[in-house]
Specification:
The complex is a heterodimer of chains A (about 375) and B (about 375). Chain A is mostly helical. Chain A has 16 helices and no strands. The N terminus of chain A is likely disordered. In chain B, strands 1-6-5-4 form a four-stranded antiparallel β-sheet. In chain B, a hairpin with a 5-residue loop joins strand 7 and strand 8. Classes of the chains: A mainly alpha (about 375), B alpha+beta (about 375).
Chain lengths: ~375, ~375
């Protein structure tokens, strides 16, 4: 609060203060220099040393974590050496500053830089107007990517949320709730690349011919049912659905956990009253539970929609976007890092941001409603 | 009355069976793909190409027990009679089960005059398992294995051991650094007053949902200028940047609910902000810190995109190494499956050990967000 108080405190003469505190000033200069040298030596060591990998990994961890802690400590110490008034004024920035600075560098400024790049050509120079956006919104490849993303958003999200809701409701009535939930939730701990391998193995296809046995589960089941084995991941549009199954496998656990905790919050008396009035379980579910948790359902749906929009790894690993499975995030990757079309890639990124704007607005509204900051 | 009670308890039993039945079915569907990979990762490379992983389970299968030659005098163009059973060549070729349980199958074309004898037997009790696949994926040296046709293949290993260590070196600081920075920031936002406080926090809220694709191109340009590409530092900073909005937001929500009296008492006792933060706030926030830590650790460990762009092939992490096996050697299932399991080992362990914290962090991140 002191920053907003209007009174001007009586100040000491800066020169007098400097001479009386010369020792402190010198130490204050000395400490950051030492800190900097120590960190720099660590950096050099990590860059050039031939130490065994285990050693360099340990040093890296120690250097990284210790370095940040040290920087905070030294910065705070420096500020506390200042006259009280200044130290009070500056200390909040020691606390908040690093976080805000990194956020600015890594997220806030890039929004502007990417926006500018999106109006420039492939090497980031010259003004090309809306050319990149015209590409992003009308090129055949992009239209296919948008179509697929729409499929991911609608099918992937609704199945994940629906299944999550079903499991949450059912598990709520079972004694082994935590076991079921842990199993469904487990894929959350697995990388998309790892999940890709798991499912690629399910979909794998060996071809026709005598003596060839399918080793992929899906083809084996199809053969067992008297069908024909297929190279599933190469058949559009069905390969998209097979990829979406992977997303459902990964995201249902998330939906389930969040919904499950919301269901636990539904007051028991309400349900009991409905049952007394003769409502059966299904009726009680739709007229009491669902309205009660609709806020949660909305949040979960939005989160998964955003997730499906940015989805990259699954497609990249499973098909590379070939055979009609391309998605926006993969096309972004191809444009920026394979074809070096920085302008086009930036335009795609900006479109992704624009799609996310409603959520940003919603978050802001929630935030301003919730507390007088 | 007693009757009614009985029927309702029966109904309960029935519905409980139904509920558990459906759940068990879903859980099986959820687990089977992973079990398949786990089983496959322990099978001989040769076997993997020949038969599905489910064949390690006990099952009935035709086991070849011998061969039978047909006398040259038998006319193979008409119906053929063998051991009292008469059938056409096509039927023999498809295989015929004899009355005594043996199955006879014509081998090849008519001229071979050979039938294989097989019997339906229970097999799979002695699965042929090995740890070689794990040795091969971990190693960076030359490895040898047999492919489907039994040919020996020699090639360089994928060096997953190095990739694993790289992942540790990336993930541990990329988890702790953002937590530290976010904890300081959260305390600052919640308990200190300074100009621009509201504006800065609104920035955090806005950046929560910004897709990280926005940042990749500009940050890569910066890293190229600073010569940071391929270093751990580049990864730590990038993951810190992308993880900070959520971290600050979560920790702020937690820190701002700590009892005001507690902090005021400490202020009155003359403790400095820094002391209050390290002695009071940090210890009190352990649950929130742990929640975010697990969240961030899993995110960083499983990340592929950021590593792909900022690390490249230098210091490559485990997701990249695994993706490289998928790309180069898409059909080497013995390497892929064991590699996939190695990459899951640590996150699964962390997940099952600290699941409760993880769930709490996730809820705070989405329900309130």
């Amino acid at each position: 609060m002191q920053t907003q108080s209007g009174k001007t405190p009586s100040r000491e003469n800066p020169l007098v203060w400097l001479t009386t505190n010369l020792g402190r000033v010198l130490i204050s200069l000395f400490v950051p220099v030492i800190t900097f040298l120590v960190l720099w030596q660590g950096f050099i060591f990590l860059r050039d040393s031939d130490a065994p990998q285990v050693v360099s990994v340990l040093v890296a961890i120690l250097w990284g974590v210790g370095g940040v802690a040290l920087l905070f400590f030294v910065a705070n110490w420096l500020v506390e050496q200042l006259p009280k008034e200044w130290s009070h004024r500056l200390q909040p920035f020691v606390f908040v500053g690093p976080g805000v600075a990194i956020l600015t560098w890594y997220l806030a400024v890039p929004v502007i830089r990417t926006f500018i790049l999106s109006f420039r050509n492939d090497i980031g120079q010259g003004f090309v107007g809306l050319e990149n956006y015209i590409f992003a919104l009308s090129d055949r490849v992009m239209l296919e990517a948008f179509r697929n993303n729409l499929l991911w958003m609608i099918v992937g999200t609704s199945v994940s949320v629906g299944l999550g809701l079903l499991i949450a409701v059912l598990a709520d009535r079972s004694r082994f709730e935590s076991v079921y939930k842990a199993i469904i939730f487990m894929p959350m701990a697995i990388s998309f690349v790892g999940a890709g391998v798991i499912w690629k193995f399910v979909y794998t296809y060996k071809g026709e011919g005598s003596g060839i046995q399918e080793i992929g589960l899906l083809n084996a089941i199809i053969l067992g049912l008297g069908g024909q084995s297929q190279p599933w991941l190469q058949i559009p549009p069905w390969n998209n659905f097979l990829l979406i199954i992977i997303m459902v496998w990964l995201q249902t656990g998330y939906a389930m956990v969040i919904i499950s905790s919301a269901i636990k919050g539904v007051p028991g008396e309400l349900l009991e009253a409905a049952r007394m009035d003769g409502a059966n379980e299904i009726r009680a579910f739709f007229s009491i539970t669902v309205p009660y948790i609709q806020g949660t359902l909305l949040t979960v749906t939005t989160t998964i929609v955003i997730f499906s929009l940015k989805l990259f790894d699954i497609v990249r690993v499973m098909t590379g976007g070939n055979n009609g499975t391309n998605v926006i995030a993969n096309e972004f990757y191809l444009q920026s890092f394979t074809y070096n079309q920085t302008g086009r890639a930036s335009a795609i990124a900006i479109i992704l941001l624009i799609i996310a704007i409603p959520v940003i607005v919603y978050n802001l509204r929630q935030f301003s409603e919730r507390r007088a900051f | 009355m007693a009757n009614k009670f009985k029927s309702s308890s029966q109904g309960k039993l029935l519905s409980s069976l139904l509920v558990n039945g459906i759940l068990i079915l879903i859980c099986l569907i959820w687990l089977i793909p992973t079990i398949g990979v786990l089983v496959t990762s322990f099978r001989q490379s040769e076997d993997i190409f020949k038969s599905g992983w489910w064949t390690v389970l006990p099952h009935q299968e035709d086991v070849q027990s011998g061969e039978m030659k047909i006398d040259a005098s038998v006319d193979v163009n008409g119906p053929i009679t063998i051991d009292g059973v008469t059938a056409t060549f096509e039927e023999w070729r498809a295989g015929i089960t004899m009355p005594d349980g043996r199955k006879l199958t014509w081998y090849g074309n008519k001229r071979t005059r050979t039938l294989t004898i097989s019997e339906l037997k229970w097999v799979g009790f002695a699965a042929n398992l090995t740890l070689d696949n794990y040795k091969n994926t971990l190693s960076g040296q030359e490895i040898r294995f047999k492919d489907g046709s039994g040919q020996e293949i020699v090639r360089k290993g994928n060096n997953l051991a190095t990739a694993f260590l790289n992942s540790v070196a990336v993930a541990v600081p990329a988890t702790i650094i953002p937590i530290l920075i976010a904890a300081f920031a959260a305390f600052g936002f919640a308990w200190l007053n300074f100009p621009g406080r509201k504006f800065m926090f609104i920035m955090v809220v806005v950046l929560l949902v910004v897709p990280l694709q926005i940042a990749l191109v500009p940050i890569l340009q910066d890293y190229t200028k600073l010569n940071l590409n391929g270093t751990y530092l580049a990864m730590w900073l990038a993951h810190t940047g992308f993880g900070l909005p959520l971290a600050i937001y979560l920790l702020f929500n937690y820190v701002s609910t700590l009892p005001r009296e507690l902090l005021e008492a400490a202020f009155i006792d003359g403790a400095s902000n820094f002391t209050i933060f390290t002695q009071l706030i940090l210890p009190l926030s352990v649950p929130a810190l742990a929640s975010f830590a697990i969240f961030q650790f899993l995110w960083v460990w499983n990340d592929y995109l950021v590593a792909l762009i900022f690390l490249g092939d230098k210091n490559r992490v485990i997701t990249m190494a695994l993706a490289a096996i998928v790309g180069e050697k898409g059909q080497d299932w013995h390497l892929l499956t064991s590699g996939a399991f190695l990459s899951m080992l640590l996150p699964l362990a962390v997940f099952f050990a600290l699941q409760r914290y993880f769930v709490r962090g996730m809820m705070a991140g989405s329900v309130k967000g």
